[in-house]
Amino acid sequence: MPLTRCPKCPRLDPLVRCTTKRTENGNFGREFVNCESKAQAGKALKQCHFFMWLDEYIAALGICRDDMMTGAAPEQAVDSRAYVATDTLAAELKNMNANLAELKIMNANLAELKKMNADLAELKNMNADLAELKNMKKLFKVFYISLISIGVLFLMMNH
């Protein structure tokens, strides 16, 4: 049976298949999988306590129980660690490809955001120019009114 690595800890070691030896709770002889990763000196990783009954584990993986009970087929007669490594690497490669696709999308979005930022800066400059034109229009009105007033005064003085 291919055992995957523990879903609860980052270590690459596969889960271990065991059988209960205790008689309480009516579970004697029942198979389970658990993670036997131990805390390592000098590392921040702690001991893992993952546990799952084998039938629940099989259901979670979607493996047919009959295939497991009849023994490994020739193509499955490989060390479970090789299965774990292959399955783990394939899953990690799939995740990495998905992450790469997501990064490409994010990169395209970043390029679009940079373009939008440049457009925004240009709009701010245009807004500043517009404000300057409004000020010039006000000054022109004052100048035009002053010019008309001077012309009217000149006409009044000459008559």
UniProtKB/TrEMBL annotation:
This is GRF-type domain-containing protein. The keyword Transmembrane helix applies. The keyword Transmembrane helix applies. Residues 86-136 form a coiled coil. Keywords: Coiled coil, Membrane, Metal-binding, Transmembrane, Transmembrane helix, Zinc, Zinc-finger. It comes from Panicum virgatum (Blackwell switchgrass). GO terms for molecular function: zinc ion binding. The lineage of its organism: Eukaryota, Viridiplantae, Streptophyta, Embryophyta, Tracheophyta. InterPro entries: Znf_GRF.
